[in-house]
Design brief:
The chain has 3 domains: 105 residues, no CATH class; 186 residues, no CATH class; 96 residues, Alpha-Beta Plaits (2-Layer Sandwich). It is globular. The chain is built from 13 helices and 18 strands. Helix 2 packs across helix 12, helix 4 crosses helix 5 and helix 6 runs antiparallel to helix 10.
Length: 429
């Protein structure tokens, strides 16, 4: 494990240094290069129903190690009270005096309906009971679970690829402010007002990237109550895999499969136009929990959220000049062909891990490629390790590309290429 952590740290620094050379293209630039001309009739159109994308839970007085050891038990505790939910994964991180669970749900099983709030409250109670019974320290304070964040989203056909950086962002921000200000005047959106505030303040969020805009909704007290995020979902799938340094989720879109779920069907329906996601994140506080328990709020909350997302699409993104600046028609097949024509790839080899990097992401912490446990010390023999690395290049490197090979633990202060491999232009990708 220690060697793997050292490999990741050195690989991150190496990619940071290599980024200055700009040999790896940006995924957003590849998408723009294969975008079709926008037609007057093109609009963002819904591609499925609204759903709950994920739920954040704070486990107070519980250590990260205890939560990881009981991850299967936590998952079973949720399934015991909500058997229709399909939990994709649970991400566990440490916080002061607590640990944080981010629970990602399958959209097909987490549709936003009138029972969603009731299900979330059942999950919170089940996690609290499980933590108090099995995770609490013998001499410590009692454990407790509390919902801290809920992500609700809906997908639309059409790519989200802004042309410039400031002009359209200001227009989107101004239009979003008008929509949210009107919503705050209506009683059904009172759940967005933190601590009794009655005036909405919309400002730019921290996660504004080339293919993602985020806006924070704050009350008069400047406390963040929610965020509205618009981003290109296809770019998100291709360009990263969770929190890993190098990764991709192209397998969700490509290749033959024995069974196809609802999300893959949605992607296939948008394969010639791309897909954009509007996401609303609600941050939970004590006062919200009081309203959360109100049956009227619990019953009308899904409808209110659907209407808010509908207004953002209809009155912000589908109105010129915003529509002409952000909406693009990007074919997934053309995007994959552009990735197959990249001229330079990186093969980064450590003692335990190896990465094949084909492109860079606008987010500096993510790169497009493949990670494998194929380091020089991960296999019984060094010859076997190089054979596995050869297969990695044959399968995932771009046809016709020059693959620069880096060894992370070579002598010297500066890591330089130790070899160059050329993949045949007629080979598979």
């Amino acid at each position: 494990m220690r060697n793997a952590d050292q490999d990741k740290a050195k690989a991150r620094q190496l990619l940071k240094d290599l980024r200055i050379e700009a040999e790896l293209p940006l995924m957003s630039d590849l998408a723009r290069s294969c975008a079709f001309r926008l037609r007057d009739s093109d609009r963002y159109e819904w591609a499925g129903e609204a759903f709950c994308d994920g739920i954040g839970v704070d486990l107070y007085n519980v250590s990260k190690g205890a939560a990881i050891a009981h991850q299967v038990g936590l998952r079973n505790a949720i399934h015991n009270v909500i058997d229709e939910w399909n939990i994709r994964h649970i991400l566990i991180t440490a916080r002061r005096n607590s640990c944080y669970l981010w629970i990602t749900l399958d959209p097909e099983c987490a549709q936003l309906d009138g029972m969603m709030v009731t299900k979330i409250r059942k999950m919170e109670l089940a996690l609290t009971q499980y933590a108090q019974r099995l995770l609490a320290e013998p001499d410590g304070e009692p454990a407790n679970a509390s919902i801290s964040k809920i992500d609700l989203a809906r997908d639309s056909s059409g790519s989200f690829l802004p042309d410039t950086t400031n002009a359209q962002r200001g227009r989107i921000l101004a239009a979003t402010r008008l929509v949210v200000a009107e919503c705050f005047q209506e009683r059904e959106y009172a759940f967005l007002a933190p601590r009794g505030d009655h005036q909405a303040i919309v400002k730019l969020g921290s996660n504004n990237l080339d293919t993602c805009y985020q806006f924070d909704i704050c009350g008069e007290s400047r406390r963040k109550a929610a965020t509205i995020k618009m981003y290109d979902k296809i770019q998100d799938l291709v360009a990263r895999d969770g929190s890993g340094l190098v990764g991709s989720r192209c397998d969700l879109m490509l290749g033959a499969k024995r069974s196809v779920n609802a999300f893959q069907k949605k992607i296939r329906s948008c394969q010639h136009r791309g897909m954009m996601r509007i996401e609303l994140s609600i941050f939970i506080d004590r006062k919200f929990c009081v309203r959360f328990a109100n049956p009227h709020v619990a019953r009308n909350l899904p409808t209110s959220i659907k209407n808010l997302i509908w207004k953002i699409r209809g009155f912000v993104l589908n109105v010129d000049p915003v529509r002409s600046m952000v909406l693009k028609r990007v074919s997934i097949e053309c995007l994959m062909a552009e990735m197959g024509a990249i001229q330079t790839n990186y093969l980064i080899v450590g003692d335990q891990l190896a990465w094949l990097v084909v492109a860079s992401n606008w987010h500096r912490n993510f790169y497009v490629g493949t990670e494998r446990n194929l380091g020089l010390k991960s296999s019984p023999g060094r010859e076997r390790s190089w054979q596995d690395l050869e297969v990695l290049v044959k399968r995932y490197a771009s046809p016709g590309a020059t693959v620069k090979v880096f060894y992370l633990h070579s002598t010297g202060n500066v890591i330089k290429p130790v070899a160059r491999i050329t993949k045949s232009a007629t080979s598979h990708f």
